[in-house]
Amino acid sequence: AARQRVCILGSTGSIGTSTLDVLSRHPDRFEVVALTAHSRVDELAAQCLQWRPRWAVMATAAQALDLSQRLRAAGLGTEVLHGADALVQVAGHDQVDTVMAAIVGAAGLAPCLAAARAGKRLLLANKEAIVVGGALFMQAVREGGATLLPIDSEHSAIFQCLPEDRRTWPQRIDHIVLTASGGPFRSRDPATLAEVTPEQACAHPNWVMGRKISVDSATMMNKALEVIEARWLFDLTPRQVRVVIHPQSIIHSMVVCRDASVLAQLGTPDMRVPIAYGLAWPERIESGASQLDFLGLANLTFEPADAQRYPGLQLAWQALESREGSTTVLNAANEIAVDAFLNRRLRFDQIARLNATVLERLAVPADAAASVEGLLALDGRARSLAGELIRTGRI
Ligand code: NDP
Ligand code: MG
């Protein structure tokens, strides 16, 4: 059989490198045809030398020139492109079968839409893209005939608990329960959260991830984004998506059925499992992850998410129950807040407050969610407002 031709958007990141790790175990099944990065030229050069893709994409022309000279010197024929248009071009190219969307942030929306419209197998790690795109994202998937497979571990878990035929989902599902680890500050005195540093926030107890999602896990804005992501992926009402803290990260999420039966997916916390599932679905292939050692497991415990400690979490339902486009606003504010926190311009405890303020203050036009342009304009306005609030200290 012909090998699946894979494009990895964000190949130098945490999900990108885990994806290459899974691919390296199945050389007969997959071929890497495009790799993209943003700032890490050295890493992308090394990946190109190993994988010999047809295309490589960097952010700027200068980086692309640098990369292309290095690859040429090594005798590679890789075509080096640059910029946001190049991401769209490779994601939708007819020589690509599968797109791993592993860019962080709303920057990944345009290439995701291109892959959706071109009918690709679209492996979605980039949750911000679906949070920003909402109904239009799902429409592009349907109209393009794409196969959308969730990579976020919780959503992969839900997907693994459901039958292939989507039409049976509504009558089957009462609600879903997304599990959350609670992040590094689950037991910390909430009064001391103002002093938290970026280094502390990025030290996650169970997962090693990029810096943005690590901060999101600590504030639980990550779970808020996942609630919104689940609403769209599984066509649920906001009330049908619930969250429980499960500090061990062994149960990756659960479906509570109409008959009160609960289906769960379990495994060691290793992103190569959902990645391998997305790559091989509906088959299963070796992922490289270790198996669960049941007898060595500590207790599996559950606790509610405390609204005082995680004030950002409830913003998911607030945004979902407001005018469409509100989730775009929430995501944009959060991207600005996290960046400011990582650059020490915003305190940790101010992230959720800033998000709430922007969500409250920004008026969403009635037709904002009618087009991608409308959503991107809204995204831009939310970013400006968030930036202004940080600069003027009116958080
Ligand atoms: P990383 O920060 O590790 O990687 C992000 C990747 O995207 C890098 O290759 C980076 O390039 C590239 N990139 C960053 N900004 C841009 C931009 N503006 N335009 C184009 N490319 C860009 O993030 P993760 O791998 O941790 O996360 C990726 C996505 O997957 C996120 O949406 C995250 O929420 C989601 N996810 C991640 C999980 C994890 O375990 N890490 C788990 C579940 C979901 P460069 O490195 O060259 O700068
Ligand atoms: Mg997740």
UniProtKB/TrEMBL annotation:
Reaction(s) catalysed by this chain's protein: 2-C-methyl-D-erythritol 4-phosphate + NADP(+) = 1-deoxy-D-xylulose 5-phosphate + NADPH + H(+)
Residues reported to bind Mn(2+): 152, 154, 226
Domain 1-deoxy-D-xylulose 5-phosphate reductoisomerase C-terminal: 148-234
Biological or metabolic pathway of the protein: Isoprenoid biosynthesis; isopentenyl diphosphate biosynthesis via DXP pathway; isopentenyl diphosphate from 1-deoxy-D-xylulose 5-phosphate: step 1/6
Entries under InterPro entries matching the protein: DXP_reductoisomerase (IPR003821), DXP_reductoisomerase_C (IPR013644), DXP_reductoisomerase_N (IPR013512), DXPR_C (IPR026877), DXPR_C_sf (IPR036169), NAD(P)-bd_dom_sf (IPR036291)
Domain DXP reductoisomerase C-terminal intervals: 266-384
Listed cofactors: Mg(2+); Mn(2+)
Gene3D superfamilies: 1.10.1740.10, NAD(P)-binding Rossmann-like Domain (3.40.50.720)
Keywords, sorted A to Z: Isomerase, Isoprene biosynthesis, Magnesium, Manganese, Metal-binding, NADP, Oxidoreductase
Top-level taxon in the UniProt lineage: Bacteria
Function of the molecule: Catalyzes the NADPH-dependent rearrangement and reduction of 1-deoxy-D-xylulose-5-phosphate (DXP) to 2-C-methyl-D-erythritol 4-phosphate (MEP).
The name this protein goes by in its record: 1-deoxy-D-xylulose 5-phosphate reductoisomerase
EC number: 1.1.1.267
UniProt keyword Oxidoreductase present: yes
Ranges where the 1-deoxy-D-xylulose 5-phosphate reductoisomerase N-terminal domain occurs: 6-134
GO biological process, one term: isopentenyl diphosphate biosynthetic process, methylerythritol 4-phosphate pathway involved in terpenoid biosynthetic process
PANTHER family reported in the protein's UniProt record: 1-DEOXY-D-XYLULOSE 5-PHOSPHATE REDUCTOISOMERASE, 1-DEOXY-D-XYLULOSE 5-PHOSPHATE REDUCTOISOMERASE, CHLOROPLASTIC
Residues where 1-deoxy-D-xylulose 5-phosphate binds: 127, 153-154, 181, 204, 217, 222-223, 226
Molecular function via GO: 1-deoxy-D-xylulose-5-phosphate reductoisomerase activity; isomerase activity; manganese ion binding; NADPH binding
Binding-site list for NADPH: 12-15, 126, 128, 210
Family per record: Belongs to the DXR family.
UniProt cross-references to Pfam families, sorted A to Z: DXP_redisom_C, DXP_reductoisom, DXPR_C
